[in-house]
């Protein structure tokens, strides 16, 4: 999922915002945080999670592997451990292709409207 343009200016995101970005429950984000050490939000006041863009990218990778590719958590952990850079590159590519597809669908709708 693409981050909204205005949200790209923020330094920190709440767990609620992160969960909404991916269409998952906050509890799932907390669970992934426990399972994947790369997801390590800062804590404000000791309890309130503050996710950075890097945390969100790590969540995006987990989301891609688990939700889109259907991998188990154990499989996703192993793949991220063995080939973190490859997972990151694949996730970025898939995300960009989704954006391009969305733009093409919008263009097609506009063209269909004109004809």
TrEMBL record:
The keyword S-adenosyl-L-methionine does not apply. It comes from the Bacteria. Gene3D superfamilies: 1.10.1660.10. It holds the Pfam family MerR_1. One of its GO terms (molecular function) is DNA-binding transcription factor activity. Keywords: DNA-binding. Residues 12-82 form the HTH merR-type domain. InterPro entries: DNA-bd_dom_put_sf (IPR009061), MerR-type_HTH_dom (IPR000551), MerR_fam (IPR047057). PANTHER family: BLL5018 PROTEIN, REDOX-CYCLING DRUG-SENSING TRANSCRIPTIONAL ACTIVATOR SOXR. This is Regulatory protein MerR.
């Amino acid at each position: 999922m693409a981050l909204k343009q205005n949200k790209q200016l923020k330094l920190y995101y709440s767990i609620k915002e992160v969960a909404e970005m991916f269409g998952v429950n906050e509890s799932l984000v907390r669970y992934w945080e426990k399972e994947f050490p790369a997801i390590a939000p800062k804590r404000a006041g000791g309890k309130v999670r503050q996710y950075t863009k890097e945390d969100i990218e790590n969540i995006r990778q987990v989301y891609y592997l688990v939700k889109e590719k259907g991998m188990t958590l154990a499989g996703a952990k192993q793949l991220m451990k063995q080939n973190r850079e490859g997972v990151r590159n694949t996730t970025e590519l898939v995300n960009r292709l989704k954006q391009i597809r969305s733009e093409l669908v919008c263009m097609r709708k506009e063209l269909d409207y004109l004809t």
